[in-house]
Amino acid sequence: MPRVIILTGDAAETLEVFYPYQRLQEAGYEVDIAAPEKKKLQFVVHDFVDGFDTYTEKPGHSWEADVAFADVNPADYVAAVVPGGRAPEYIRNDEDARRIIRHFFDADEPVAALCHGPLLLAAAGVLKGRTSSAYPELGVDVELGGGTFVEGGGVVDGNLVSGRAWPDHPTWMRAFMDLLTARHPVD
């Protein structure tokens, strides 16, 4: 069974971890959640409240990480997913997280990034010359990482599929599943 890795950590957006996790399992892929260390992660829920200029954050679900970044052999996986929330703000500083992401781009294997997920891609140096979506306020980060920011729900550039946030799940994950199943179908 082909394996997919989700790179995340504490303060990841609950919906942005669980939706791809369950969708990939439903399609027959084995999914591992990787984090800075193998431990119980605390996710969050972001929501929009009238009168606020940005999203609010509340505690979400907790979930065990399957593997620490340092112990990941990315060649064991056919694709990677980087959900948003605040986790990408700090996992981008982890050399092993950057190593894992660079592997997928060097190997031209499918990568899905949502919301704040492109922060890790920028830190890994893989957005140069790429088109990527992200949470709209991160457009400047995509551009500082050498990419072209496009606000869209299922933006595809080669092996990269990106989107703005959890409301984009249908278009983002549909585009990613099309790419993944074309390259690595489940038998």
UniProtKB/TrEMBL annotation:
InterPro entries in alphabetical order: C56_PfpI-like, Class_I_gatase-like, DJ-1/PfpI
Signal peptide bounds: none
Sequence ranges assigned to domain DJ-1/PfpI in this UniProt record: 3-178
CDD domains linked to this entry: GATase1_PfpI_1
Record-stated family: Belongs to the peptidase C56 family.
Record-given protein name: DJ-1/PfpI family protein
Species annotation: Microlunatus elymi
